[in-house]
């Protein structure tokens, strides 16, 4: 028997896990499954802005060779200007690495840093790649609580309690996946002060920083400190609806002087994978400099805004379900009354729903949430389909018994 590496023993990514496989099986058998499980806008009819697609097309011939391993100079320059406009201190084009999506850079940032048993503070609930990347790199993911009773903002006291002599850094996901929370500047200030006191690196995943509703304003964590090293992550997948292009970036700012060895390590790993997908890199400058069509989608007249409204209304009208209304991204993380439905396993709940109604969600435990009382909904489908799908969930729950 050929065995997988033991390094994978505790590595999980439930968004494409066993229940997802089961949904694929159902589709192969001819059933139509409504996928509210993955934040992939294109299959729901969202299109990247034309000028971005155009720039990739006209540059296909120019994109045949490798680039600098950090990425095209013009693309990095555009990222530099964008970072400066968000207040990130002392960013130059050499502080930027372009990757095959933020995913690759999350892996790289952990692999270059961690020795066995080094700890990284990660939110619960989290975007699970962060936890997986830490574990796969030999480190230990320590989860700090985001508090549902406080609009899912990070619980600073819990974060501080969990810092040990082995803690190397902390991860912030803002706007948040899976809760949709957008953090106010005071919260970010407190987090960076804590990072400064304990000399932690700040990893700020800001991949949804343009998907904001109502009066929400996004602030980059790195803008609040020059004293610690901050790595800020973003890309084209969500803000520009181009997840398949696999284009993301990572920006180092703040106290780079204390981190020359780590930054060298990051560059070494970036060099070993030569460079990221080159045709997609040509889209970056256009995306950051051009007309931002995502803005129209999040206005009250826009598609994403309307979908959020319908999703929230339908979910919260189901007896036994409550939800904090999200201010950003395109996810909701509702709470389900486990007593009412006799739920011991959120995985069973999601699997039962899939089999019964052919609706695919992801269980809260897939986001490293410890209790079986949450699940995540992706509200990318059109309002009509969302309404029908959430009505199926309501119907299913009328008689559900999780025992
Ligand atoms: N970070 C967060 C919070 C995400 O939700 C996702 C994708 O869903 C990623 C990173 C990965 O994005 P990319 O497509 O750039 O690899």
From TrEMBL:
The keyword Transferase applies. It holds the Pfam family Aminotran_1_2. It is an enzyme of class 2 (transferase). PROSITE patterns: AA_TRANSFER_CLASS_1 (PS00105). GO terms for molecular function: transaminase activity. Keywords: Aminotransferase, Pyridoxal phosphate, Transferase. The keyword Protease does not apply. Its cofactor is pyridoxal 5'-phosphate. This is Aminotransferase. It comes from Rufibacter sediminis.
């Amino acid at each position: 028997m050929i065995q997988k590496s033991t390094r994978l023993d505790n590595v999980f990514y439930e968004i494409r896990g066993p229940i997802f496989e089961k949904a694929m099986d159902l589709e192969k058998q001819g059933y139509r499954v409504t996928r509210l499980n993955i934040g992939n806008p294109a299959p729901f009819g969202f299109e990247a802005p034309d000028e971005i697609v155009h720039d990739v097309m006209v540059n296909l011939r120019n994109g045949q060779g490798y680039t600098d391993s950090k990425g095209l100079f013009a693309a990095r320059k555009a990222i530099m200007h964008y970072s400066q406009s968000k207040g990130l201190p002392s960013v130059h084009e050499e502080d930027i690495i372009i990757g095959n999506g933020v995913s690759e850079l999350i892996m790289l940032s952990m692999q270059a840093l961690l020795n066995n048993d080094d700890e990284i503070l990660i939110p619960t609930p989290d975007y699970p790649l962060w936890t997986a990347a830490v574990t796969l790199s030999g480190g230990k993911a320590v989860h700090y609580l985001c508090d549902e009773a406080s609009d899912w903002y990070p619980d600073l006291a819990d974060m501080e309690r969990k810092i040990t002599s082995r803690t190397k850094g902390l991860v912030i996901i803002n706007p948040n996946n899976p809760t949709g929370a957008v953090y106010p500047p005071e919260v970010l200030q407190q987090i960076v002060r804590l990072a400064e006191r304990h000399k932690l690196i700040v990893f700020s995943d800001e991949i949804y920083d343009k998907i904001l509703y109502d009066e929400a304003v996004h602030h980059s964590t790195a803008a609040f400190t020059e004293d610690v090293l901050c790595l800020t992550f973003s890309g084209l997948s969500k803000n520009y609806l181009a997840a398949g292009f696999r284009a993301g970036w990572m920006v180092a700012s703040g106290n780079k002087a204390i981190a020359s060895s780590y930054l060298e390590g990051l560059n070494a790993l970036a060099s070993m994978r030569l460079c990221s997908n080159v045709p997609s890199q040509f889209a970056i400058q256009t995306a950051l400099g051009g007309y931002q069509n995502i803005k129209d989608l999040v206005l009250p007249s826009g598609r994403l805004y309307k979908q959020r409204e319908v999703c929230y209304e339908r979910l919260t009208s189901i007896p036994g379900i409550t939800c904090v209304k999200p201010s950003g991204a395109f996810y909701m993380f509702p709470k389900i009354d486990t007593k009412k439905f006799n739920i011991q396993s959120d995985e069973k709940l999601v699997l039962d729903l899939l089999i019964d109604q052919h609706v695919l969600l992801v269980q809260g435990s897939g986001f490293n949430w410890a209790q079986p009382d949450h699940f995540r909904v992706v509200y990318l489908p059109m309002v009509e389909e969302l309404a029908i799908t959430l009505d199926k969930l309501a119907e299913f729950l009328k008689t559900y018994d999780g025992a």
